[in-house]
Amino acid sequence: MVDQAPPHLQGTPRLSLEGFSVAQLPSDPALGRSPLVLLRFTKADYPAEGIQPFSPMRLPERVDVLLRDLDAKLIERAELSMAAVLAPGDHRLPTAKTGEFVIRVAPDTRIDLRLDLGPARSTTDDDRPIVLRSVEIELSKPLVLPNVPTTLLDIQELFEDERLARLCTRWAGLPAGERARRVAAFVDRLGAIELSRVSGQAVFRPRSSRWELVLRFSGRVRIGPGPAVPFRNVRVPRALLPVPFATLDDLLSEAPLASGTLHTTRLHIAEAINALRRMVLSLDGKFSASISPPRCTAEAKAVDGTALSGSVMLPSRVTVTGRLEGTGSSELLSVVAKDLTIGFPQPSVFLEIGAKIGDLLPGSGPVLSRFSVDFENKVSRPSAIPSIDVEVTSRHSHAVGSTSV
Q1: How far apart are CA 378 and CA 308, in angstroms?
Q2: Residues 333, 268: Cα–Cα separation, whole Å
Q3: Pick from 69-78, 171-180, 187-196: least confident
Q4: What pLDDT, in 10s, does the model give residues 56-113?
Q5: Which helix (H) or strand (E) holds 91?
Q6: In whole angstroms, what is the distance from residue 313 CA to residue 295 CA?
Q7: Does the predicted model carry a pTM greater than 0.85?
Q8: What is the Cα–Cα distance from 217 to 239, expressed in whole angstroms?
Q9: How far is Cα 201 from Cα 358, in angstroms, rounded to an integer?
Q10: What DSSP line would sit under 101-157, residue for residue?
């Protein structure tokens, strides 16, 4: 099902996610850990009740993706190194209610990002979790943040941490939050923070037996016309800035914070994604990963009622490497994954995948269903697929059969 594309995306087919859903299947104790991706293709009902016109070649309009036992353990390692040139000017990221986090970018500012993902280090657990081991962000010119104190107060509405309330007391009959907001606004007017580096490291907490991503910040504090005061590797108290998990499964869950509870319904996700996209003028980078692919199964029903299913099992280890290039504008971010090599590990498939990403479409549905994206892919020579096991099964009230290749 294809819906209307914005004017800047017209002219090429656009992927519609309206008939697309993702859900999780419960684990089957009888199978143990058995990773599975199940694609269930179905046809939409006709609007008029009882009408089923003859359409033997009709394609499915809906795809339900069902996932079982898909977790970070499928990833052996992953690395990303990327550089981007940022659009100059003031960029505003929504926080809570009407609050905005202001980021002031100087011309020709370049940001370098490095991520390292893999099994946790320095742990006695035999089954080491997959964690974001480190993250490094370097800026060629500092980002000027003129309203950090006010933003730290605004984001308190996004998560629960009772320790902040103990830092404030009542003054002149005003609530503690109102007093803190007046102080923060006064501090905002005094100067700004110039951020030049952010680093994160996975740290194991023996008391809670969990991995946390500890963030440290470097830069300068400029107050009035006087000289800037540098700071290096400073940690913001977790009562002000929550600490995320380092374990990938937790970080990508609905509860990604190790130090508090996140109120996801209060997040302005679409507005934040659109604002971050507009910050990018160009990007380039490289990535690599090694994964253990799950079993893939597809199910559909033919016009005569025959239930068809097919399963594919890839080799136990797949590697992915490639380069990223992209350009951005106020309306569109175009990204191309070049020299994309999917190895099994031998033979390999060589691809080039391009994506044009616009603003999230208006609406109140899930974020995935509101993305405005064009995809284009090319397969290059000498691509070759490996030997794979394929099992096809058909079921009907009058016949049952199965084929293995």
Answers
A1: 29
A2: 20
A3: 171-180
A4: 666 777 888 899 988 888 999 999 999 999 999 999 998 876 788 999 999 999 999 9
A5: strand 89-94
A6: 5
A7: no
A8: 16
A9: 32
A10: EEEEE-TT-EEEEEEEEEEPSS---SSPPEEEEEEEEEEEEEEEETTHHHHHHHGGG
